[in-house]
Write a structure and sequence with these properties.
By secondary structure, the chain is an alpha+beta fold. It has helices spanning 7-16, 39-55, 58-62, 72-88, 108-118, 120-127, 137-149, 207-242, and strands spanning 2-4, 19-20, 24-34, 102-105, 155-159, 181-191, 196-206. Helix 2 (39-55) crosses helix 4.
């Protein structure tokens, strides 16, 4: 998959990178990719397709959130969703996700309403930021998405962060379990005809949790550094004694 550098999305991403809205920090991201596979993606796609066929139940083969998995187009959709996550979050591995870990959205209006509600406070910051507030934040977001993906021609999916199959997002398995996350959403807009996929995610992070995490990380770093210095000193002393 190839990352698509879209100036409109870059402008929005720069704003959504870290928006202070009082008790929360809002962090969002929009990334678009071409679904034309090559190299490692192509190799991984082939192995994933085999694993999906082998691990899917008869009911999933006939019906799933991405379509019947006996259909190669449905399997491709699932693989594109997985590969997109792998590209955006390279420190995590999503290859164990399957069709039941995603949900197909039927109402774009419902998505837009939820996004508007979540970004309400961030939108106020956008309006007061010089050079950005000429149009409402959500208008800019949806115009940018439509420009890249053509909403009228796209299917929309989201990752299910907890489901009956036993999968639950946590800090070790993927980034959506990040401590301090008060709310979050993630949507995949897939235009099969254009062979493009756009990912839109956002989360509201508790400031107190972020500060606690930074303090903990700092303390851990200091402890590790002190341990390394003590080990270096011990090694140096041993070398001196040998001399």
């Amino acid at each position: 998959m190839k990352y698509l550098d879209i100036p409109t999305l870059t402008r929005i991403n720069s704003f959504l990178d870290n928006v202070d809205v009082g008790d929360l920090m809002v962090r969002g991201n929009l990334e678009a990719y071409s679904c034309k596979l090559a190299g490692l993606d192509k190799k991984l796609s082939r192995s994933l397709e085999e694993e999906v066929m082998e691990s899917s139940s008869p009911s999933e083969l006939s019906k799933s959130p991405v379509g019947p998995l006996v259909d190669s187009n449905s399997r491709k959709t699932l693989i594109y969703l997985i590969l997109t996550l792998n590209h955006i979050y390279p420190d995590y591995d999503f290859t164990l996700l399957r069709a039941q870990h995603f949900c197909k959205e039927e109402s774009l209006v419902g998505i837009q309403e939820l996004v508007s509600a979540r970004l309400l406070e961030a939108a106020k910051v956008w309006e007061s930021t010089p050079g950005l507030g000429e149009e409402p934040l959500t208008d800019a977001v949806w115009a940018g998405i439509d420009e890249v993906i053509s909403l009228a021609e796209s299917d929309v999916y989201r990752q299910v962060l907890e489901c009956g199959s036993g999968y639950r997002s946590d800090l070790e398995s993927d980034p959506f379990g990040e401590k301090g996350s008060v709310w979050s959403f993630n949507y995949f807009f897939y235009n099969k005809k254009a062979k493009r996929i756009l990912y839109f995610s956002c989360r509201g992070m508790s400031k107190s949790a972020i500060e606690l995490s930074q303090t903990t990380d700092g303390a851990r770093y200091n402890t590790d550094t002190e341990g390394e210095l003590e080990a270096d000193a011990a090694t140096s002393m041993a070398n001196d004694m040998d001399l």
